[in-house]
Structure formats: C-alpha cells, structure tokens
Design brief:
This protein is α+β, with helices and mostly antiparallel strands. Helices cover about 30% and strands about 30% of the residues. It is built from eight helices and 18 strands. The longest helix has 20 residues.
C-alpha cells in the first residue's frame, strides 16, 4: 500500500499533507481556529486528489511512425491512435508524447463505443540529428497537482534526420571492373601490369630476373612493372570547431561530405569516410585517432552522419590526413571537406600527408 501511495503522490502533495497534519495538531493544541480551517482545507484537497485517481482508462493507445528516416526539411510526424474497445463511451483524457527535448500534450476527446481517434504529432526536422519519440504516456492527476499517475502505453522510437544530399552524377559509365587495379605511370619492381625489361641494378629483387632476356643479352635483365592502384576513394570531414565560421557552415560541410560518399557506395566503389575522433574532457592529451563511418550501404552512412557534430578538442584536418594516408592502402582520390577558416597553407600541408600519386581535392 505504501508503495502504491508513494508512486503517485508528488512533492507538492507531500508538502500539503505535512502542512495539514501540522495545522490540525497546532490548531487543536493551542485553540487556533484559523489554523484548524487550514487543516480542513488541506484535507479537502487530499480527498479531491484521491477521487481524481479512481478508475482506469479503458482506451487502447498506440503510436505509429510512418517514416523512421527523413532528410533535413522533409515533413515527418508520429500518429497517435486511441481506440475504445468497450461498449461505453470514454471520458476525455490527455496523453503526453515526448518529441526530442520537447513534450507534446495530445488531447483525446470522448470516443464512442468501438470508435477510434487519430492525431498526427509533427516531428521537427529543421536540424540534422537523432530524435527520440515517445513513449506515449497517459496522465491522471488532480487539478492542483497533488497526485499524478502515469501509464506508459507504447515503446520509445527514433527518428533519424539525415543531412540533405544532392544527386551527384554516377562516377561509373558501365560495369566497374577493378579487380586487379588500374595501371599508373609510376614504375614498380613487382606488380601485375608489365612495363619493360631493363638491366639489373644492385638492390633489385632476384626474383624479377628475366632469364630468357639474360641469356640473349649476356647480362642480368629484370622485369619492370607499372604500379597499379584500386580506385579507392577517401572522404575526410573536419569537425574541429575552430575550422568553421558557424554551425550553418558545418551543416553544409556535412552535406558536402555525405553526397560523394553515398554516390560512391551506390556505384560500388571502394570508399572510406572518416572524421576526427573526439578528445574527452578528462583526457590529459589529445586522442590521436580517426573515426571511420560505415560504408556498407548509403543508409548506414547517412545514419552515422546524422550524429556527427562539432568538437572543441579534436585533431585538425592535417593530422586527420596523416592518419588516413598512412593507415589506408591504395588511395586514388581524397576529398578533404573543411570550413572557410582553414587557410591555403593548412590545406597544402594536409595534401602532402598523403602518399605520392594521390589526387587530393579540398572542398571548402
């Protein structure tokens, strides 16, 4: 019984109960009628609050999300449905629907027998992010607020607001046949694409000696190959707050990074999308690492882009380029998406952190 009572009485209710008890004791002890009247007023409020909790709602309330993923600016909403399965009309009630950091009160009118009522609650999509919607909670309380009983009707859902992307034309004109890589003008002592035969030089691998040419010329001859690289695309997004003028510029940068990343995934390209790793506030030194976003499908990539935000303590774009350039093999093109406060010397420094032969494109 104590557990049931304590779960519905609010802080104001406990205060009124204590004042009522003190008023009765002090009023009758010292013969103060005015204090006794205060005690009876508190008792009347307690009776009214107890009457307000009598009974339970006969409604069956459900919540439905037509779309769990939307882009910035698209319309989104959650549909709250109330059904009266009984043979008697229901009484008007109010349910609460948490939407992100806000709370929406949905007034449900009286519903006839076997009737239903639907109302759409809009979900704000002005900003990119992950919004928690629900659970729908039924509230029964007295007019003063001494007691409050909540009934959870549904589970919590999530609405993921993707960044706005543009339809970049396909980077493939047909089937991508890149199993062995594409030959470049850089020469290599061991690869797949044969280039020429030259004389042996100290330090060459003996396994590359071409014995037939050696027998004809009378001198050691070795095979020389053209260096082949796979069409590996890298998109690196800077998230340091000092590299962007404002939040709107960062939102544009996220869209600019998500568009080529999603296009490359649809084209079947090998792509890596990275951002700088955040440094926790309690850390004594900066975290020298990057965070790789999933590139299995465009939807998975956009889901992670929805939670990417600016950080006060993280690596600059030049250090991100150093890590990506050393840890990722076979890079052919790298896109560096930065803000307008990054100068040209910093971009040139970031470009030099990639291996020789990698085409680096800066998107400001």
């Amino acid at each position: 019984l104590w557990g049931e009572v304590s779960s519905v009485v609010t802080g104001l209710g406990w205060t009124v109960a204590a004042l009522t008890l003190v008023a009765f004791v002090a009023g009758y002890r010292f013969g103060l009628r005015e204090i006794v009247v205060v005690g009876f007023a508190g008792a009347v409020l307690a009776v009214v609050a107890a009457v307000a909790l009598i009974g339970r709602s006969r409604l069956a309330i459900r919540m439905r999300l037509p779309q769990h993923r939307v882009a910035v600016g698209d319309e989104a909403g959650v549909i709250v449905t109330a059904e009266n399965p009984t043979r008697l009309p229901s009484v008007p009630t109010t349910v609460e629907v948490p939407v992100g950091s806000g709370l929406v009160d949905v007034a449900i009118p009286a519903i006839g027998p076997q009737g239903t009522f639907e109302r759409q609650v809009p979900v704000p999509t002005l900003r990119r992010g992950v919004l928690d919607v629900g659970p729908v909670t039924g509230v029964r309380a007295d007019p003063v607020g001494l007691v409050r009983r909540e009934v959870v009707w549904t589970a919590r859902e999530q609405v993921i607001v993707h960044p706005r992307t543009i339809a970049i034309p396909s980077t493939s004109t047909g089937l991508v046949r890149d199993l062995e890589g594409q030959a470049t003008t850089d020469l290599s002592p061991s690869d797949i694409a044969f280039h020429a035969i030259r004389e042996y030089m100290p330090g060459d691998d003996p396994r590359t000696i071409h014995w037939k040419s050696t027998a004809k010329s009378g001198a050691l001859m070795v095979r020389q190959f053209e260096d082949t690289r796979r069409s590996h695309l890298v998109v690196a997004l800077g998230i340091a707050r000092g590299e962007f003028a404002d939040d709107e510029e960062f939102e544009l940068a996220v869209s600019a990074a998500a568009s080529p990343g999603a296009r490359a995934i649809r084209d079947g390209r090998e792509v890596s999308v990275v951002v700088s790793q955040r440094t926790p506030e309690f850390a004594k030194r900066a975290v020298y690492a990057v965070r790789t976003l999933p590139t299995v499908t465009p939807t998975r990539l956009l889901d992670d882009f929805a939670s990417v935000g600016l950080a006060d303590a993280c690596l600059p774009i030049a250090e991100v380029s150093r890590i990506v350039g050393s840890d990722t093999e076979g890079i052919s093109v790298a896109f560096l998406v930065v803000g307008s406060t990054v100068g040209l010397p910093a971009l040139r420094l970031a470009a030099t952190r990639f291996p020789v032969g990698v085409e680096v494109v800066a998107v400001i």
